[in-house]
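Weekly sync, protein design subgroup
Attendees: M.S., D.O., the rotation student, P.L. (late)

Item 1: inverse folding check
M.S. brought a backbone from last month's batch and wanted to see whether the design step gives back something sensible before we order anything. D.O. pointed out we never logged the input encoding, so this time it goes straight into the notes. Structure tokens as presented (342 positions):
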């Protein structure tokens, strides 16, 4: 079996990707320090796949720990690097923690890959690297603007580190996957998003409001230059996103028509406003969601959505699920973890 080291594999995106790796015959070797994730998602992977993925608890910035894993797990074909802090608001309040964790983790993983002659890495990047795009849909040639947050700046810096290293080491192959807005949960309700405190992201806040955990959703602004005044995003189902990682891996291992450093936008190509998403949630679930219009959130981009053509052309991947599917799956997951029947 082809071993894939999945850092941050107990997290939302890492765990869903581990499921898709197993489904395609790969062997995920998961590492996580549970700083922003929960051990229960490992059980979710097992329930869905009926396989117990190899797991090591530890920190990607810990050189000795990473080296131990590479020594124990010979034959790693690729590293999928998810391990990073990703809360935009938190990064503004604690920038040093973000630079320390997100940059050092990648540097430590790259050093260990070099030492152990592992030559493929797929990096978890984000549409945040673009900032507020001048034109949409956004394609991969869209230039970076000044990142809106330290979180976004770490993603820009990590992409630069990876590009420079792929130029310096002719054998290193890198794919950076720029996620638009991942939402939803696994259709089995065995995996989903598990915010450890008050959710910063829209969909978990919606489902926690619907579950009665939060009193009311605040829509951050309705005076933007968009059809209904609320911000527009590209919401991609987490299962589509996970499958894109396996498509990228397969191309990377089997094909030679990728450059040593490639980036791909992962999105649906459809822009959806906050109010459209809220109304769709009410429609698909029948829940009368309490919400109000509030002030804008600083740092928010007004409008962004992907041009997903390159991923289709080069990886043979495109989204199959809709944001309506994602909202229903997210609600089913919330009901399960909140033990709500019906
Ligand atoms: C979406 C829209 C909010 C909460 C961030 C990261 C990005 C990625 C996804 C990692 C915005 C509005 C939100 C609420 C609201 N992270 N909103 N009320 O900011 O687009 O992207 O998360 O991969 O890199 O930047 O996502 O879900 O926080 O916000 O009105 O209670 O929902 O203003 O317009 P965002 P989000």
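Designed sequence read out in the meeting:
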């Amino acid at each position: 079996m082809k071993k894939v080291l999945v850092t941050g594999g107990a997290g939302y995106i890492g765990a869903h990707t581990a499921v898709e790796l197993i489904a395609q015959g790969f062997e995920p070797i998961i590492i996580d320090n549970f700083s922003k994730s929960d051990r229960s998602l490992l059980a979710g992977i097992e329930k869905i796949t009926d396989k117990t993925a190899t797991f090591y608890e530890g920190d990607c910035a810990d050189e000795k720990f990473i080296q131990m894993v590479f020594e124990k797990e010979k034959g790693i074909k690729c590293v999928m690097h998810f391990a990073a802090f990703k809360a935009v608001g938190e990064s503004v309040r604690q920038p040093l923690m973000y630079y320390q964790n997100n940059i050092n983790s990648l540097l430590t993983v790259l050093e260990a890959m070099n030492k152990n002659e592992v030559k493929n890495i797929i990096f978890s990047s984000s549409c945040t690297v673009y900032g507020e795009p001048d034109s949409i849909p956004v394609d991969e040639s869209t230039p970076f603007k000044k990142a809106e947050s330290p979180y976004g700046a770490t993603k820009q810096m990590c992409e630069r580190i990876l590009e420079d290293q792929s130029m310096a080491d002719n054998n290193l192959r890198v794919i950076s996957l720029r996620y638009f807005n991942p939402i939803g949960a696994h259709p089995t309700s065995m995996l989903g998003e598990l915010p450890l405190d008050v959710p910063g992201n829209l969909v978990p806040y919606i489902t926690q409001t619907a579950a009665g955990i939060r009193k009311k959703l605040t829509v951050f602004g309705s005076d933007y230059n968009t059809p209904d005044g609320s911000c527009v995003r590209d919401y991609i189902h987490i299962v589509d996103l996970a499958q894109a990682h396996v498509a990228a891996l397969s191309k990377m291992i089997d094909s030679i028509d990728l450059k040593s450093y490639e980036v791909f936008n992962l999105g649906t190509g459809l822009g959806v406003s906050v109010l459209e998403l809220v109304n769709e949630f009410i429609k698909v679930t029948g829940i009368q969601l309490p919400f109000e219009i509030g002030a804008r959130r600083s740092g928010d981009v007004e409008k962004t959505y992907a041009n997903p053509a390159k991923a289709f052309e080069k990886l043979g991947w495109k989204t199959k699920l809709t944001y309506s599917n994602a909202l229903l799956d997210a609600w089913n997951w919330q009901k399960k973890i909140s033990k709500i029947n019906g």
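Discussion: Residues 185 and 192 are 4 Å apart (CA to CA). Residues 86, 88, 126, 128, 179, 181, 200-202, 205, 217-220, 231, 233, 274, 297, 300 surround WQD (CB under 6 Å).
Action: P.L. to compare against the previous round before Friday.
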